[in-house]
Amino acid sequence: MGECKSGCYIYNSGILAAGENETNGDGLFTRQMASAVFLFDLTGIASYQTFVENNYQNAHLLQWGYVYPFENEIQDVLLYYASLPNTSPSVVTAIHNAYSASVSASNSDNLPAYMGHADQYRAWLSDNNYTWNSNKTKACQGNIFQNMLVYNLDVANATNYQNAAQGFLNYFHGVNPNSKVYMSNMSNYEADNSVTQFYHSWFENGSPQWDEVGVSTYGPPAGFIPGGPNPSYALDACCPGGCGSSTNNALCNTNVTPPFGQPIQKSYKDFNDSWPVNSWTVTEAGIYTNASYVRLVSKYVDGAGNCLINAVSENEDKSNVLVFPNPFSETVTVRCEDASGEMQIKIFDLNGKVVFSQVVDCRKNKTLSLNSSFLKSGFYVLEITTSYKTIRQNLSRNKTNCNSNPKPQ
Questions:
Q1: How many CB atoms within 10 Å of residue 91?
Q2: Of 141, 140, 158, which is closest to residue 149 (Cα–Cα)?
Q3: What is residue 303's predicted lDDT score, i.e. its pLDDT?
Q4: How much of the chain, in percent, has pLDDT values that exceed 90?
Q5: DSSP letter, residue 307
C-alpha cells in the first residue's frame, strides 16, 4: 500500500478495504453501512444485517430526524435497506417514519417549501444551501421528493412530491433566474441558452477545439452539468498582489461580475479560467453532479428514452380549467369547464414577455386549441384569468413527442 500523506486517514482492520484511506468520520460510516446493506442483499449473510441494525441509529437521519440534500447517500442506503425482505419490522418503521416525517412536515425546506410557494422557480433551496456545486444539491433535493414516491411513503401527497421533484428537473432545463439550461452545448437539442463552457482539464481554456461553443471548433461535448451558482465565489486568496510574480498578479485583473455582485441564484457565469480566477468553484463538471441529475431525470423517462413528464399545475381547482397535453408538441388545448364569462389567456416566456394573448367567451367556446408553431421549444408560463380568479401554471413545448398525458375524458 502507498504511503499515507499528511491529513489522510487509514482504517486498517487487516481486511482489504480499498479507498478507506480517502475518508473518515461520517464518510467512513456511510461506506461501511452501504457495504453491509448491499452485501446483505446479495448474500443474505446474517452478520451484515446485524451490523446494519446495530448501527443504523447512528445515522443523522435517525439521530436528528432530519432529511436534507447533503446526506443523500446514507439516507438512500437506509431506505434501500428498509425495502429488503427479512429485515426487522421495527427498523423498517423507524427509518420510514424518520424520513417521511422530515420530508412531509418537520423540515420546512422540504415539502412545506413547495406547498408554500417559497421559490418562484419551483426549486427551493435555502440561501445557505447555495454553495460550491449547488447543482448537485438541487438534483439531490429533487431525489429526496422522488424517494417518497419510490418507497411509497406518503400516498396522500404523491402528486405534490411528483410536482415538487419536477420543479428541480425543470430548474436544470431553464426554469431558473438565468434562463440557463445547465447542460453543456445543447443547441443541437433545441436548447436556446445552454452552457457554452465549463471547467475541466480536458476542455481547458484556450483549447482550439474544445474550449467554448462558437469560439473553438467544437466547444465542449454535450450534456455536462457545471457546479452551478455559487455566491461564495472568489478569486484566489493570493490576489491581487501576492501570487508570486507580476505576471501572476496580472491574472487577477479580470472582471468576474457575474458571479460577483449578483443575487444568490444569479451568481453564475459560463467560464473556465484557471488559477487564480478559480472558475472551478462555479463551473467544474463533476461525475457526482451528472450522476445526481441522471438519477433525477431517470424518473421521467422510460427504458426507450420517451418522456413521462406529467403536467405541473399551480391550479388547485382543476375542475375549472384544464390544459392538455403538457408538455406538448404542436397543439395545446385550454378547456374551460364552468366559467360563467370570458377567459383571458396569456402565455409568457421566462423573461416575462407576453408571447400570446387571447380572450375566449366560455359561454360560447369551451375550448381553445392553440397551434404552437410560433413558440420555440422550452418553458413558458400560462396565465388564465376569469371573472373571479387568476391561475398560472408552467407550460412546456417540446418539438419531439415527449408527452404521455392523454386527453382528459
A1: 18
A2: 158
A3: 65
A4: 63
A5: B
Q: Is the pTM above the cut of 0.85?
A: no
In a 10 Å sphere around its CB, with 0-12 CB exposed, 13-18 middle and 19+ buried, how is residue 112 labelled?
Answer: middle
pLDDT category, 375, cuts 50, 70, 90?
confident
First to last CA, the chain: 67
- For residue 14, report the phi and psi dihedrals to the nearest 5 degrees: 90, -5
The number of C-alpha atoms within 13 Å of 238 and in the hemisphere containing its C-beta is 15
Q: Which of 401, 354, 402, 345 is nearest to 375 (CA)?
A: 354
In 3D, which of 340, 302, 293, 295 has the Cα closest to residue 320? 340
CA distances from 382 to 312, 367, 371 (A): 11, 15, 15
Check if the beta carbon of residue 283 is closer than 8 Å to that of residue 197: yes
The grid cell for 243 is 501570487
The C-alpha atoms of residue 370 and residue 367 are separated, in whole angstroms, by 10
The Cβ of residue 283 has, within 10 Å, a number of other Cβ atoms equal to 28
Q: CA angle, 393 as apex, 135 and 312 as ends, to 5°?
A: 60
User: What is the distance between the alpha carbons of residues 344 and 334, in angstroms, rounded to a whole number?
Assistant: 11
Please report where in the chains the cell 463552457 appears, as a residue.
197
**Three cell numbers at 126?**
435555502
pLDDT the model gives residue 4? 41
Furthest C-alpha separation in the chain: 81
Asked if 137 and 125 touch (Cβ cutoff 8 Å), the reply is yes
- Written as one letter, the residue type at 3 is E
Q: CA nearest 157: which of 96, 100, 92?
A: 100
* pLDDT beyond 80 at 9: no
DSSP reduced 3-state for 226: coil
Map residue 383 onto helix, strand or coil. Answer: strand
In order of their start, the domains of the chain are: 20-172 (no CATH), 321-397 (2.60.40.3080)
Write the CB contacts of 353 (distance below 8 Å, at least 6 apart in sequence). none
Contacts of 329 (CB under 8 A, 6+ apart): 397, 398, 399, 400, 401, 402, 403
Phi then psi dihedrals of residue 94, to 5 deg: -65, -45
H-state helical runs in 83-205: 89-101, 111-115, 134-150, 158-172
pLDDT in tens, 27-84: 899 999 999 999 999 999 999 999 999 999 999 999 999 999 999 999 999 999 999 9
Does 10 have pLDDT greater than 70? no
Any idea which of 17-21, 91-95, 108-112, 253-257 has the lowest mean pLDDT? 17-21
* The three grid cell numbers given for residue 373, joined into one nine-digit string: 408553431
